[in-house]
Amino acid sequence: MNERDWILLKTLAEERKITRTAECLYISQPAITYRLRMLERELGTTLAIRTPIGVILTPQGEYLAEYSREMLLRLTKTKEHLASFEKQVKGPLRIGSSAIFANHELPQLLQGFMQQYPKVEILLKTGRSMQVNRYLVREEVSVAIIRGEYDWQDEKRLLFEEPVCLVSKTPVIMEDLPSLPRIVYDTDSSLQATVDEWWRKRFAKPSKESMVVDSMDTCKRMVMQNLGWAILPSIGLSELDKLYVQPLYWQNKEPFVRRTWICCGSYALELPTVRAFIEYATACFKDKARPSLQAPVSMLADSGQDEKKPPRKERPRRHPSIRAGRE
């Protein structure tokens, strides 16, 4: 077996179809079938069974697919360490990133980094923060950008924090929320749990959930059509959305914030490429604008900073949401 066989088996295990595997690897279906037969003959066992709906890996095939994943990971790590011997910032850089960070911040971050270090090869995996954290624990990535609070004992640096906000198309009073339709952003479990905790401490009854969506952009677009209100982190909000945005506060008057971290294992920090990326990312967000956590005067009572409820005529003003990482 060689690297091409490992890639074939890993891809087949992920796609479960010969056609999709062929498309991913840019090779013909007969070539994949032929190589599978050669491997089965070489190893003396059946690796996969074709069915009308796809491919089923045998226990031997599953074992070999996992072996292939491990060998490809070892090969990539070997290339990383070989590049580190020259003390130059070059070679593969395996990054795991929260999907929402990858959407709003990562492209410009990588562009600047690659301009400074053109010999680096970026290998990127995105997903929800819980999934990215697993990538890091399993050493499938060298460095991870994670949103929320996860237990990590090695290198961990705060990139930025941003307010979590009440977002609506028209002005709303905080005390009216339980009776108004809510659009739930089905987000990472850590943020969802914190939002639920904030709600329980603020209100005696559940919210009136009318929609549940798994995309922040979809949630925001529903709000823009005045179909309900939502609770969203400010990273995805813009002045162009023309929405009413109220930063949320806890009962102790502390702002409700969402933190973004960059993490890596102690072994990875010894790699020049990883160290350079962490230093570059940290410096970029250190120099950028932070979101304002201070609400306008008309919003103070609704944010938990004053016990008195303002007259209804003092509706919150529409104002821009300044999010972390945007200049």
User: What distance separates the N and C termini?
Assistant: 50 Å
CATH superfamily of one domain: Periplasmic binding protein-like II
Please state the CA-atom Rg, rounded to the nearest Å: 24 Å
* Sequence of secondary-structure elements: HHHEEHEHHEHEEEHEHEEEH
Spans of at least 5 consecutive residues with low confidence: 289-327
What is the CATH fold-level name of one domain?
Answer: D-Maltodextrin-Binding Protein, domain 2
- Level-2 CATH architecture of one domain: 3-Layer(aba) Sandwich
Separate helix tally: 10
Shape: globular
Measured by DSSP, the beta-strand proportion falls in 15-25%
Query: Which CATH first-tier class of one domain would you pick?
Result: Alpha Beta
Q: What can you see in these coordinates?
A:
By secondary structure, the protein is α/β, with parallel strands linked by helices. Among the domains are: 1-85, Orthogonal Bundle (Arc Repressor Mutant, subunit A), CATH 1.10.10.10; 163-257, D-Maltodextrin-Binding Protein, domain 2 (3-Layer(aba) Sandwich), CATH 3.40.190.10. 39% of the residues lie in helices and 21% in strands. The protein is built from ten helices and eleven strands. The protein has helices spanning 3-15, 18-25, 29-43, 59-84, 99-104, 106-116, 129-137, 189-202, 216-224, 272-286; strands at 48-51, 54-57, 91-98, 120-127, 143-147, 155-168, 181-185, 208-213, 230-233, 244-247, 257-264. Strands 3, 4, 5, 6, 9, 10 and 11 form a seven-stranded mixed sheet that branches. A two-stranded antiparallel ribbon has the order 1-2. Helix 8 (189-202) links the parallel strand 7 (181-185) and strand 8 (208-213). The longest helix has 26 residues, at 59-84. It is globular, with a radius of gyration of 24 Å.
